[in-house]
Amino acid sequence: MIALRQEQGQQRTVERRLEALAAKRATRVQNQMQQSTATKQLVTLQRLAQVLGVHPDTVYRALRSGALPAVRVGRQWRFDLDAVLSRVSVTVGNDNSAACSKHQDAT
Asked: What Å distances lie between residue 65 and 47, 58, 59, 70, CA to CA?
C-alpha cells in the first residue's frame, strides 16, 4: 500500500515536470515566431518589382532560377524585402567592382 502511494506520487511529480517543460517550450516557440515575423517585411512580387525598378517577369525569372529567397503563400509568392535587397546589393556590388576594374585596365 505504501509502495503504491509512493509510486503514484512519483508519477504525479513526473507529470508536473513534463507539463512545466511543455509550457516552457510552447512559450519559447511562440516568442521565436513573434520575433521572426516581427523583423520580416514580406512583399508581393509586384511590389518587389516596383522597389527594384524591374518588370515583374524579371523578378519571376530570378525566383525560378533560385536567385531570390521567397515563401509561397497560397498561390502567390512573398519576398523578405531585407533579404532580397541585401542579396541584390551584393550582386550589384560585385558586378560594379568588376566593371570598374575592367574600365581602369582599359584606360
From this structure: 19, 11, 10, 12
CA quadruple 99, 45, 38, 68: dihedral sign: negative
Q: 12 vs 1, 4, 15, CA distance in Å?
A: 17, 12, 5
Contacts by 10-15, CB closer than 8 A, 24 or more apart: none
Instruction: Decide if 49 contacts 59 (C-beta within 8 A).
Output: yes
- Alpha-carbon gap, residue 64 to 68, rounded angstroms: 8
**What cell numbers appear for 34 in the block?**
513573434
Q: How far is CA 46 from CA 28, 80, 81, 88, in A?
A: 35, 13, 12, 16
pTM greater than the 0.70 cutoff:
no
- Give the total residue count for the chain: 107
CB-CB contact of 30 with 22 (8 Å): no
Instruction: For residue 26, give the 3-state DSSP assignment.
Output: helix
Question: pLDDT by residue (tens digit) across 71-82?
Answer: 888 999 999 888
